[in-house]
Amino acid sequence: MEIIKKMNNLVEGDKIKSIEDWKKISISTKKDLSESIVPKNFLELRITSGSTGKPLYVFYSNKAVEGFINRTRKSIKLSGVSNKDIVLNLFAYGNYVPGSMYERACLLEGISILPLGAPNTYPKEKIMEVILKVKPTVWFSVPSYALGLLEVLNKINPKIMPKKILVAGEMLLNSYILRFKELGVEVINHFGLTECPAIGVSKKGDPKLIKVINEGIYVEAVEINKNLELVITDLNNSSTKIVRYNTKDVLEKIKYTSNGSISEFSITGRDDDLIKLQGMLTSKIKIEDALSKYTNEFIVNFRTKENSDYVEFILPSEFKNKEDDIMKELSFIFAKKEFIFQNKIEVPKTSSHKLRHIVDLRK
User: What's domain 274-360's superfamily in CATH?
Assistant: First the structure.
């Protein structure tokens, strides 16, 4: 079996005789990757901090780069994007994979692309100027940033709204999906990691269900902490070896190929999503989903006062008359809640322009 040969090449031996042998290899984590040495040979480097806040160096071999560019090209085709489209690329550039990865894939497919990146590489006002002038038919972006631009464009000139937006880099909340639908824009979810880019693309009509592009990767669902969690292997990367790497994404709706690799899945959350407030586990994603039904401009701070946890919600002043409704939406939080309403809110952002809505300030 070709897959077994690739597995043996990756672990530098001949001990893998079957998929059952493969499953005996230990699961790897971010900690394992952070301790890996700089390889002698690599083609490209990306640095990510992800949820840990600590830099993680991922080196890609020549075959790994070729592999994820080819998967990106395929994901673009599966999304119905062609050389008849004009693409606005709002994914971050610099140290981050998506910006340059999608640009290269589009160029190889002969698709016109506007490589502007998020505001950390190009100002928001200039992006809107380009949209109004060139009228791109497809956008690539993190969902929260795309929605912010769409709201502005819908007021200025709704006739030039894009026909579809390919999103990645953030959890695609139910409230986001609903708002895209209300704005009349098709949303297609692309899933990948810095550790292993371009893993899959959502099924038409269901942005939460990811169809895996099983080319040069092996994808598993492994029971960890009573959850089925996503475990990825990049069969092409001989530089930073991504072998049975636990992404901490919790899965459901799983289907498999004949060789045991996952063919499709849906992410329900993350194993590090739950946080204790007053001794009770609470989902950060559930908090974000509840608030984003009203606005994307909000900040949630976990704080401590008089030895008790409480949650501080900072929201735009225009939603003060909705305080009782919002309080009901957040009834699943068993801790004291305080609301602050402000005229202007600056939501903290990561360097790749993902919104950091929730901050734990407890000491």
Answer: ANL, C-terminal domain (3.30.300.30)
